Every structure is written in C-alpha cells, then in structure tokens.
Amino acid sequence: MGRIGMPIIARVFQSQPVCRPSSPAGKWTSTLTLLCLFALLVQSGLTATAQQPLAADPAAEAIGQDELSRTIARGASLEQERRWIEAVRHYEQASREFPDSRHIYQRLVISRLHYDVNRRYTDKSFVASAHSMSVSQALDLYSEVLANLDTHYVETVDWSRVLLHGTAALEIALTEERFVQDALPGKDLGMLHEFQQTIHRRIADRPSTNRFDLRATVAFVADVARQDIGINPTTVVLEYVSGAISTLDPYTRLLSGDQLDDMFSNIEGNFVGLGIELETDENSLKILSVIPGGPAEEAGLQPGERIVRVEQAETHLSDPEIAADLLRGPEHTYVSITMQDQQGGRRDLRIQRRRVEVPCVENVHIVDPATRIGYLRLTNFQKTTTRDIERALWSLHRQGMRALVLDVRGNPGGLLSAAVEVADRFLSNGRIVTTRGRNSRENFDYVAHRPNTWDVPLAVLIDSDSASASEIFAGAISDSRRGILIGERSYGKGSVQGIFRMQTAKFGLCLTTAKFYSPKGTAISQNGVMPDVKIESPYIAARPNDHGQVTSDHEDLVLQEAIAKLSSGNNLISQRTP
Known about the structure:
This protein has 19 helices and 21 strands. It has 578 residues and is of the alpha+beta class. It has three domains: 123-248, no CATH class; 270-357, Roll (Pdz3 Domain), CATH 2.30.42; 361-572, 2-enoyl-CoA Hydratase, Chain A, domain 1.
C-alpha cells in the first residue's frame, strides 16, 4: 500500500488524463447520504438526466436573487447536452457558492456518476476485466472492496448508503450509450428503461446492515438483471463496485489495472507515455511542458501547442479527456495524433510510447542576479523528490543563492512522506503535519529534525491548484513562520489516500484513510492554506500562456512579488531558537 496525499483527478503527466478545473475540484458539501436524493427521484419520476423542469430550490428564496436559478439552468443545459465533465466542474464551483443548496449537491452526484461510467467504458483494461471475470470473481472483488472500507475508510461506513450508490451507478449506466453498446448491444431500450425504473423498488426491503447483506443483494440484482435484460451479471456487479466507491468522497475510487499501474508509476516518477504534461480545455489538450529526452521532445512537440486528435478521437467532437486516455498504451507501441501550433497550423505525427523519467523539479535558476535570489518549481511529490530538490538547492548554493523562491503552484500533491521530507529540509524542529483517521494506525505526528536544514530566507508560491502534499508543505512553512506565502488560497484537499492492491482481480482501491492538519491544528480540508500576500497571476513562469507563448519571469506577477519581498528583507524567516 502506498500512502499519498493528492487529488487523483489532478494528476497531469504524459499519457495520464488531466482534469485541471478552474476551481478546486471535489469541494462537496457535507457527507450527506443519497437516501433523500433517490427517494426524491423515485417519487418525482425524474430520470438521471435533467430533462424536466426543475423545482424551486429553497436556497434561491433565501438568497433573494436570480444567480442560483441561472446556475441551475446552466447545469441543466450541460446535462441535457451530456457534457458531463463540464457539468461536474460547473456543479463543483456552484457547490462552493451555494453550499446549502440540496439541488446542486444532487446534480453534482448524478453528473459525476454519468462521467465515471463513460470513463470506465473508454478504459480498455476495465472493459477487458468486465468481459473476462466470472460473476463469482466479481462478487469476491466487491466483498474485498467492502472489507477494506470497513477496516480502513476514514469515516464509519453507512452500508445502506453504499448500496444506494451502487444501484444509482447501475441505473445511470443503463442510460449511457457507451455502456449499452458494450454490455447490451441491440437490446430494446424500452426494456432497459423499465428495468432501470424498477430495480430500486425491488431491493428496497432487502437488509443492508452489513457488508454481507450487500453482497447478497448485489448477487440478487445481478441474477435478476441477467434474467430480465440478458446482461452479463459480472457487468452489473462491477457497477456496484464502482458506485460503492466513487461517491464516498471525491478522492476514493476504484482503479482499473491500467490505472493501478499508472498510479505506481506516478509514485516512482517514471511512466510509459509520450513525455508531456497536459491540460484539458473545452476543445483540445494543451501541452504545458515537454520532458527532456522523451518521445515528445524528439518529435518536436512544444509547450503551448495543442493536441486536437488522438487516433480516431477528435477533441472538439468528444470529451478531450477521453482522447487523453487514448494516449495511454503499452511500451514501444505507437499512437497517432494531430498537433495544432499557435498559428493554427496542423501536422500529423506518429509517436512511440516509451518509459520516461519524470522530473519533479524544474526551472532551477537564479531569478534575480542582483540579490542572488534562487528559484525552483516543484511539480509534484514523488519518491525522487527529496533527492531532486536537494540537488537543485546545492546547484543554486554554488551559484551564490542568498534567498529562495519555491513554487508549488499547480502542484497536485503526491506522497505524504515526500512532503514531510521537503518541509524537514527547511525546518529544524517542531511539528510538520498531523494525520488522524478512524483506524488508530493512521494517526501520526510528523516532526522536523535539525540536521541538513537550509536556513535561506524563503518565499513559497501557492495557488488554487496547490493541493494536498503541497498544502502540507505550505502549511508547515506558514504555521512555523519559516517563510512568506504568496499567491492565492490553496486547493483545500486535506485528506490522505492509501493505495490497496486487490487480491481477487487486477484492480486497486484508492481509499481515503485519514485527514491531515497543519502544525497549529488547522484542518486543511475545504479551508486550504491562506497566503500572507494575496496576489494573482494569470500565468506561471516558463509555462505557456493562453496564446501558447512561454511566460517569462517578468510576466509572472506572483514571482515578481516574491522577489520584491525577499529583496526588501521583509520576509518571514524561522522563529526557532538556535
């Protein structure tokens, strides 16, 4: 098992898909159950998509303005167009603005379930498992997943809620074309709709007080589905597996075989892929950086260019993240793509996937020669991070560094241990972070140690995409008054995930096992870390802007503010005693 502290949907390197939302993803309201949601759906006859007029939301009356109504209408439009990833992002932002709106929370959950089933059925390894596993293997996998929830999940599990989530996943899957084409090709849609509408009522009286009850109920549903609509019962069970996990919290999820391999590659810092970092937008995949020595660099790909086709998937016709999934593949195989440069010119390329060593430290240089201020950007926290950042610091030291800007903007997190080790390089004593879980084995107090401490004046740059392990580091620096934080409030992802390999099949479980707190006991979850100096910059140094041009140091307003603060001597240095 690997312990990580990162928002899974934000991982961005090479062929792994990117979801880099404009607002912190997954900032749900409280851990409400879906009992009220599906009771409402059954009673009102609403389908899983927003095709009918929306009832008035009580929050709208309390607010006394039209903004909530416009927000709901915009979400309904995205749902009707089946633009699920955009709907998820829209409702995530709306849930921050209207945290008391039950309607927005419900639509967020439903949109996420739609998005998840589409992602599963574009994942070749998941589909292969659905076709090859027996129903008894699938049920054993379900039991194994539930046992891990029972033992390791951060909160006490509500088994009735888990069952409802699984039923919802199955109901929604039956409305999605990708699922139906794979699992039920040529079936009468009316028959599927009838089954979808009745399955919830047919299991309403079945017990759901423990995980053994759930296995029995899912076995019952799988058999009924086989008889009624002729579906492979394994497929039914896998929807229950996925649904049981995916709506517990934004970071707990089932990992297919390929995703599990990618996750451990992520931790190790090497991947099979093209060697590019991507960001999705509405119609394309934008290249943020190209890894030196990788296949993409050899093929001439440049930061700021866009991928507009992967194999048969045109990014403007389908979800760009689905196109990003197609970049994944076995080592030494080839992928066909179409690139678009900043002037709109296009070229077709065929690039070999290879194993690529992914640096986690980039753009190391003396950013202000007059005052000898060094700069480095930390892109993620992986096994090699401590070694790589130490090399960068010594390189800057040899160049005469007198102060340091350490940039974790856009850093989605990674290994908790790596975040602790990096913080320990700048703190000689005191607490770095505390983790607390339902299981006492998840309770740790991480403290700093004096050896090998760097005492240079320090500025840390953060933004709304600095998450998890980045927030552990930034929170430790802030609470200890070791340095000054500049930028925007961070993401607010204050939980730790464990990666569990399943024994019954090649799947993994990314499971929230603990929450973490800053040295002063501040919960990071939903709060984030606040900067000492609040300033926004649309662009990050050495990264492409909206026009595909690489941003210079002088165009990065946050970086320039950090240089000014360090140059003036008005920086916060450690308050520790010698």
